[in-house]
Amino acid sequence: MNGLAFEILEYLDRHPDAEDTLDGIVEWWLLEVRVQQAIRQVRGALDFLVERGLVQARTVREGRTLYKVDSKKREEVRQLLAKRLW
Question: Which helix (H) or strand (E) holds 67?
């Protein structure tokens, strides 16, 4: 089974009564699955950056977290970015 088939199954697992047309599946189901996947990936990346001290996390009202670069680490961030650029 390919990745796309798993994405459809992932959606159907969360919404067992769902049914839609091909266009609806592409527009709504896969969008939701990919947004959820992106949230997991971004959360992991942010956790990594916070653990390395490059990004600061601050919890504000309603338990929401804001992220920003650690101003003391800006030069280190620039050096890391320069290594990646070619």
Answer: strand 65-69
Residue pair 55/80 in contact by the 8 Å Cβ criterion:
no
**Separation between Cα atoms, residue 14 and residue 35, nearest integer Å:** 14
- The structure tokens listed for 55 are 């990004």
Instruction: Kindly tell me if the per-residue pLDDT of 5 is higher than 60.
Output: yes
DSSP 8-state secondary structure symbol assigned to residue 58: E
Question: Is the overall model pTM greater than 0.90, yes or no?
Answer: no
Q: Which residue ranges make up each domain of the chain?
A: 3-84
Classified as helix, coil or strand, 21 is: coil
**What is the phi-psi region of residue 45: left when phi exceeds 0, alpha when psi lies from -120 to 50, beta otherwise?**
alpha
The rounded Cα 21 to chain-centroid distance in angstroms is 27
